[in-house]
Hints:
Layout: H1 2-28, E1 30-34, E2 38-39, E3 43-46, E4 49-51, H2 53-64, E5 68-71, H3 77-86, E6 91-95, E7 105-107, E8 112-121, E9 138-142, H4 149-158, E10 160-164, H5 167-175, E11 181-185, H6 186-195, E12 202-204, E13 210-219, H7 228-240, H8 243-255
Parallel strand pairs: 1-5, 1-6, 9-10, 9-11
Antiparallel strand pairs: 2-3, 3-4, 6-13, 7-13, 8-11, 8-12, 8-13
Helix pairs in contact: 2-8
Amino acid sequence: MKKLIIILLIAASIIFAVIIYVTRINASQSYVASGHPEWAPIMWRDNEKIIGAGPDLVKMIFSELGIKIDLMYTGAWDEVQAKAKGGEVDVLAAAYKTTERETYMDYSVPYTIDPIALFIKKGSDFKYSEWKDLIGKRGIATVGDSYGQEFDDYIKEKLNVVRVSTAAEAFAAVVDGKADYFVYALYSGEKAIKEQKLENKIEIAPTYVASENFYITISKKSPLVKYLDQINELLAEYKSDGTIDSLVEKNKKVAY
């Protein structure tokens, strides 16, 4: 009987040691989060990091969960999404929901809204009130960007939109008369206009083309998908207590 008790105690000690060891391994594991490099104030590039309201929120959430996360610049937006698809990037700080993206990422609940605007040449006779007004006009957008599934589908089916690598290229095309409009996130566009000193050359159409929800997404290949319920609980808490709104406003001041 004593031998059995000793054996059981030894077995319990080994199991406990294994649990502690695995916990320490998990605690020391660092995961990669990334985002769009030109989508301020929600997310943008700062040297080799991605900063903004979304990254701030991701850091808060994973710190609460006791998980190490690195907010890293991992390339242009289409490259970032490809790396999330392949599992090289675990978390995206913010993304719109599209059918294609849902095949390789799991989505949190939405945490903020992003207006999508049309940027046009100042003084032009461009008139816009609904999507059909864009038919026959020359549009421009940036590679890898989505504007919500519905408007994305409308672009493919009805509109003439050329994709370029950067917002700077798109604004230049509008200023030079090579495009009639640039479809882009309102806040990011406002920031770019100030940085590029385009206030006298570019204006924003008063009617937005869409307002889309932003979500935190997790690669289906990442072990972090199991934390989605806890992430959603924390997002609900941060949304109700005003934390998310405060992060957006804080990062507007930093970005602009």
